[in-house]
């Protein structure tokens, strides 16, 4: 009898799952073997139009975009070199991309989020503190060393801080050809047109002079 009840439960769960709305956790699957992006295409769609198959060549599936270190001589001591679809057209429709990030000693990849992808971080050199915050403002973080991994769930705000003594390098792999990036500091202090002062003073519980001082620091960006 207990087992009959169990079977009924199983059937109900299976039915519930089968009829649930389709949950898509990454870019939609491609409909053909490949669709090398025609970056000059003028068609507006979700992604890029495909190059005609006859003009696709071996090198369309190759990228040397991440061979060289980015120049970290900026106030944050960070440089991300992206091999997303715009730099690597062979990724079009494949639902993945990769970024190389170089960090100077003490360098910070400031808190940011990727609206369209989870991020798998692989540290290649140095010691990097990777942290992300969940919707409940719980901070999860860990110092990640060479050949170790950390995963940042899709859309959550995260940072990478070089806590080692030398330079650090990590690769970030994404389940989207174009993960997108939102850096809250920039999207508050260096928007065009400017965010209304009243929004900023009320958001940060600061007066106009304090906000203006902050905005000056972000003006170059
Ligand atoms: C990142 O490095 C590249 C290559 O050295 C450089 O052209 C670019 O200006 C750097 N970006 C930043 C934000 O420093």
From TrEMBL:
Pfam families referenced in this protein's UniProt entry, alphabetically: Cupin_1
Cystine pairings recorded for this chain: 35-50
Binding site for oxalate: 109, 114, 119
Coiled-coil residue windows: none
GO cellular component: apoplast
Organismal lineage: Eukaryota, Viridiplantae, Streptophyta, Embryophyta, Tracheophyta
Protein name, per record: Germin-like protein
Major localization class: secreted
């Amino acid at each position: 009898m207990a087992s009959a009840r169990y079977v009924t439960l199983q059937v109900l769960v299976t039915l519930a799952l089968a009829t649930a709305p389709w949950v898509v956790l990454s870019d939609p699957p491609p409909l053909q073997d490949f669709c090398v992006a025609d970056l000059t295409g003028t068609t507006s769609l979700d992604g890029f139009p495909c190059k005609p198959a006859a003009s696709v060549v071996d090198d369309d599936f190759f990228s040397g975009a991440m061979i060289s270190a980015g120049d970290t001589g900026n106030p944050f001591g960070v440089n991300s070199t992206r091999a997303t679809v715009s730099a690597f057209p062979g990724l079009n429709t494949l639902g993945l991309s990769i970024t190389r990030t170089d960090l100077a000693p003490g360098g910070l990849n400031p808190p940011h989020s990727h609206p369209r992808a989870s991020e798998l971080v692989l540290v290649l050199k140095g010691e990097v503190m990777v942290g992300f915050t969940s919707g409940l403002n719980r901070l999860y973080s860990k110092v990640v060393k060479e050949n170790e991994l950390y995963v940042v769930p899709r859309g959550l705000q995260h940072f990478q801080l070089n806590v080692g003594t030398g330079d650090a390098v990590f690769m970030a792999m994404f389940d989207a050809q174009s993960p997108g990036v939102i850096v809250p500091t920039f999207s508050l202090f260096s928007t065009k047109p400017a965010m209304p002062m009243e929004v900023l003073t009320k958001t940060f519980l600061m007066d106009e002079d304090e906000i203006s001082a902050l905005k000056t620091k972000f003006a170059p960006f």
